[in-house]
């Protein structure tokens, strides 16, 4: 299929990965008239349940990959750690967006930070730590307080240890199994923002307004929009996010997580080469959802409008909420402006993302207050 010809509804799309992001992509694609095949080894995968067909196989199963490449007109992914070999094999036969080369820098924190530096994208001071011998020079370069993080495989605050002294650095490195790590300066955060960027194959870029995020224990807890920043800061956030997508030559939906320091400096924290948890508010409060954008961009169309239609707050529902059985969802349905999204996961493990609620209100502060109160009610119920 020629890269320049858009892929029309009625065609078949492939999704590597069967989690909640794949599920919301699948719903959007099928709503728009596409057929969807999901590849995921888990027979109970959230996306597989929504797909026209769920191919139960591993990501390196060559027969399954060849089947996907043979049946699909274009393929996308829902997580950054899809093996590069799988993407390369698919790319030989069909369109894969985002491309493996655009995803590669996001698969390893050291490569990601080196990419930021190479392209003049502002980020925290950092240094590589691959052996105990690296600790001294890394500490000299980065200073304390800092954070030692696994270079790859970590997410949602896992695989990280605080470092407040040279002695703590040795312990932290040991606690992380002396695996390849990155030492990052721990900056004082005035706030955390994220921008969902849509970049089309022809280079057209559309950014959603920045969302304001609150993390608890390293996991996203809430996102609220509009963020409580002035227009100049919002514009700077969008500009740095757009520049990141351009530098990557990225085609698709890219989540760009940003730190705002006490000096109002904007730093790029990390990238998600896919729709992002902080963009789930778009399902109820934006002119186009981030999953429809993923379909549009995968198929070679331009991005839909990214306007915010209402102030909104999103609160994540983690597995901990199920400690005493199913939460009383009637509370959500009794709250005007609240919309429940559950991902169909059977096992509610602590910290596992089971769903989210979007709450629309007259302003972001009210939306956030209502979302938090609703969450607290569900916890207490
Ligand atoms: P990460 O998995 O690297 O995105 O980290 C999860 C969360 O930990 C971030 O969203 C921040 O709240 C916090 N964090 C991570 N790195 C830093 C840093 N270098 N300085 C301050 N806070 C950080």
Structural write-up:
- It is a single chain.
- With 381 residues, the chain is α+β, with helices and mostly antiparallel strands.
- The chain folds into 3 domains: 12-96, Rossmann fold; 125-185, Dna Ligase, domain 1 (2-Layer Sandwich), CATH 3.30.1490.20; 189-380, ATP-grasp fold, B domain (D-amino Acid Aminotransferase, Chain A, domain 1), CATH 3.30.470.20.
- The chain is 30% helix and 27% strand.
- It contains 12 helices and 18 strands.
- It has helices spanning 20-31, 62-71, 84-91, 100-103, 109-118, 134-142, 166-175, 231-248, 282-285, 290-298, 330-333, 364-380; strands at 12-16, 35-39, 53-55, 74-77, 95-96, 126-129, 146-150, 160-163, 181-185, 189-199, 205-207, 211-216, 219-225, 252-261, 266-272, 312-318, 338-342, 353-360.
- Strands 10, 11, 12, 13, 14, 15, 16, 17 and 18 form a 9-stranded antiparallel β-sheet that branches. Strands 3-2-1-4-5 form a 5-stranded parallel β-sheet, with helices on both faces.
- Strand 10 (189-199) and strand 11 (205-207) form a beta hairpin.
- Helix 1 packs across helix 10.
- The radius of gyration is 21 Å and the shape is globular.
- Adenosine monophosphate binds next to strand 9, strand 10 and strand 15.
